[in-house]
Design goal:
The protein has 480 residues and is α/β, with parallel strands linked by helices. The chain has 2 domains: 4-247 and 447-472, Aldehyde Dehydrogenase, Chain A, domain 1 (3-Layer(aba) Sandwich), CATH 3.40.605; 251-432, 3-Layer(aba) Sandwich (Aldehyde Dehydrogenase, Chain A, domain 2), CATH 3.40.309. It has 14 helices and 20 strands. It has helices at 37-55, 59-75, 77-88, 92-113, 151-162, 176-187, 203-212, 225-236, 260-272, 292-305, 324-339, 392-400, 415-424, 463-466; strands at residues 4-6, 9-11, 16-21, 24-33, 118-122, 128-136, 139-143, 166-170, 196-198, 218-222, 241-245, 251-254, 284-288, 343-346, 363-368, 383-389, 407-411, 429-432, 452-453, 467-475. The strands form 5 sheets. It has a 7-stranded mixed beta sheet with strand order 14-15-16-13-12-17-18, sandwiched between helices. Strand 12 (251-254), helix 9 (260-272) and strand 13 form a beta-alpha-beta unit. The longest helix has 22 residues, at 92-113.
Length: 480
């Protein structure tokens, strides 16, 4: 049984879950302990003490810790990426890339440790100086998802530690092996006992207690809108700071002047990369009427060429979805699309491979309109829907017409259209001639409306969430 890491020690438990490989359900990756209420209490108590020590630790020592974590992740990206793909289902190349990117988060924030923001300001009063600086907020609860089990956790844990906080991390129960692997790397560093705790368990048993606890100063969460609302409601009772990334319904707009081969490539990568299990996936393709038919023909041809298979097999482009429950939900959306009058052009069925797993052919639907549920609800599936637009203005309106606003993209040769789209898009991230999925690690990430709540993640903007501002007034007295 793989234990939790509580108050600086690896601790087992009486309850556990089995972690199955979605590419081969006969492959049990391991049994993972589920944290008890007493263990969560111990983690929180030790985090408070450790955070005080860590905040007083020299900047260079803190930077060295983060740099060491990042370098080990990058050096071991092949090994750990394979483990990640084995338990989550994304093709091995994507798993390796995710682990490497996680390392970049740590090394980048190692540099931020040494770039401490602050201001020395003259007071309006004679003889008084004003010092404005940022200080750590305290204990940060990290609640991370299964679809990017190492990268998403890293872009939360790295800045939390960089700015002097302690971390209590509850990962998704579907991907515990990745959580244990990352925790092992962090635990080996020269950090105070209890600074970093791993508390695996269900959202109901562990996550809820964690976000409700008054010892937690801030909660950073990535997951569904429904769960996010519950997290916010629980945290607000203690006036706990909250940062959340939730649902999305991203649109890629293809204009009549677009390079169609590029547009199809971006659509396929954005819609089906990671088996469509990305918050940035291109689940809506808004296509200008003049190029609609040609685009759809090319899109279906490319989709049919994609190889669905075992995540660790050479040549696999689409791995399995993460679980039986997720697959059933995906197939329910395929049925819903038919009920709503959409035309299925390819895919959308469960398929068998040499090993038992949760395999599904990527699906393309046409003759859809934006009022359909399949174009308003986040499916988290290898499914994309094509919507016709008569002109640029209609395309922009369709792209904006959802409750969400994480990413949006446009494919066009027109600089004027690209500029207008950037200005009019109601999404937090806008892509021009790029896939909607794919962001850099050193710049802010987040959305608008129901996609995000609270300060941005990543880059220098992360300091807004993980620190609090202190303003000091200093009167030096009269010179003798």
């Amino acid at each position: 049984m793989k234990p939790n890491f509580i108050a600086g020690e690896w601790q087992s438990a009486t309850d556990f879950i089995e972690n199955l490989n979605p590419s081969d359900t006969h492959d049990v990756i391991g049994r993972y302990a589920q944290a008890s209420a007493a263990q969560l209490d111990a983690a929180l108590d030790s985090a408070r003490e450790a955070q005080r020590v860590w905040a007083a630790t020299g900047l260079e020592a803190r930077a060295n810790v983060l740099d060491a974590v990042g370098r080990e992740l990058m050096a071991r990206s092949g090994e750990l990426g394979e483990l990640l793909s084995r338990e989550e289902g994304k093709p091995r190349a994507e798993g390796v890339g995710e682990v490497y990117r996680a390392g970049q988060f740590f090394t980048w924030f190692a540099g931020e440790v040494l770039r401490q923001p602050g201001d020395a300001v003259a007071s309006v009063r004679a003889g008084v100086d004003v010092d404005v600086r940022r200080e750590p907020i305290g204990v940060v609860a990290v609640v991370s998802p299964w679809n990017f089990p190492i990268a998403t956790a890293s872009w939360k844990i790295a800045p939390a530690l960089a700015f002097g906080n302690a971390v209590v991390w509850k990962p998704a129960n579907l991907t515990p092996a990745s959580a244990v692997a990352l925790t092992e790397i962090i635990a080996r560093q020269a950090i105070p006992k209890g600074l970093m705790s791993l508390v695996m368990g269900s959202g109901r048993q562990v996550g809820q207690r964690l976000v409700e606890d008054p010892r937690v100063a801030a909660v950073t969460f990535t997951g569904s809108l429904e769960v996010g609302r519950g997290v916010a409601a629980a945290a607000v009772r203690n006036l706990t700071r909250v940062q959340m990334e939730m649902g999305s319904k991203n649109a890629l707009v293809v204009m009549d002047d677009a390079d169609l081969d590029l547009a199809v490539s971006l659509a396929v990568n954005g819609a089906f990369g990671g088996t469509g299990q990305k918050c940035t996936a291109s689940s809506r393709l808004v296509v200008h009427n003049r190029v609609h038919d040609a685009f759809v023909e090319k899109l279906v041809a490319r989709t049919l060429e994609l190889k669905v298979g075992h995540a660790l097999q050479a040549g696999t482009q689409i791995g399995p979805v993460v679980s039986e429950q997720q697959l059933e939900a995906n197939l329910a959306y395929v049925e819903l699309a038919a009920q709503e009058g959409a035309t299925r052009l390819c895919g959308g069925t469960r398929v068998e491979r040499e090993t038992p797993g949760y395999y599904m052919e990527p699906a393309v639907f046409a003759r859809t309109h934006n009022a359909m549920r399949i174009n308003q609800e986040e499916m988290f599936a290898p499914i994309t829907c094509v919507i016709r637009a008569d002109d640029f203005d209609e395309a922009v309106d369709i792209a904006n017409d959802t409750p969400f606003g994480l990413t949006a993209g446009i494919v066009t040769r027109s600089l004027a259209r690209a500029s207008a789209f950037r200005e009019r898009s109601r999404s937090g991230c806008v892509m021009v001639n790029l896939a909607t999925a794919g962001t850099d690690y050193h710049v802010p990430f987040g959305g608008t409306r129901q996609s995000s709540y609270g300060p941005r993640e990543q880059g220098r903007y992360a300091v807004e969430f993980y620190t609090t501002v202190k303003t000091s007034y200093i009167h030096a007295g009269e010179a003798e």
